Amino acid sequence: MLVLNRKIGEGIVIGNNIEIKVLEVQENRVKIGIEAPRQINILRKEVYDEIVNENIKSLEIQIDLEELLKNNFKME
Question: How far is the C-alpha of 66 from the C-alpha of 56, rounded, in Å?
Fold first, then answer.
């Protein structure tokens, strides 16, 4: 993990087309701005984690359903 110190108005560039800038700092909160192409998804980490967990649950349900169908409809 790269750790950087930035002041208000300073930023970092990722690749050729993503810029992250510190906009404001208040108490224990930092407001950042992100400039990136529209086709790049930008999610808060907690939202991303929830999506991943829901996808895993969905996959587990699908696997369980496939097993249930295999067991109930065996060709003999």
Answer: 15
> Quick one: 7 and 34 in the same domain?
yes
Q: Answer yes or no: do 31 and 52 share one domain.
A: no
CA distance 16 to 23: 21
Instruction: Give the strands of the sheet with 11-14, arranged side by side.
Output: 11-14, 18-26, 29-35
The total number of structural domains in the chain stands at: 2
Report the C-alpha gap between 54 and 58 in whole angstroms.
Answer: 6
| 34 and 52 housed in the same domain | no
Whether pTM exceeds 0.85: no
Q: Which domain holds residue 22?
A: 1-40
Tens-place pLDDT, residues 7-51: 999 999 999 999 999 999 999 999 999 999 999 999 999 999 999
Spatial distance between the Cα atoms of 37 and 13, rounded to a whole number of angstroms: 13
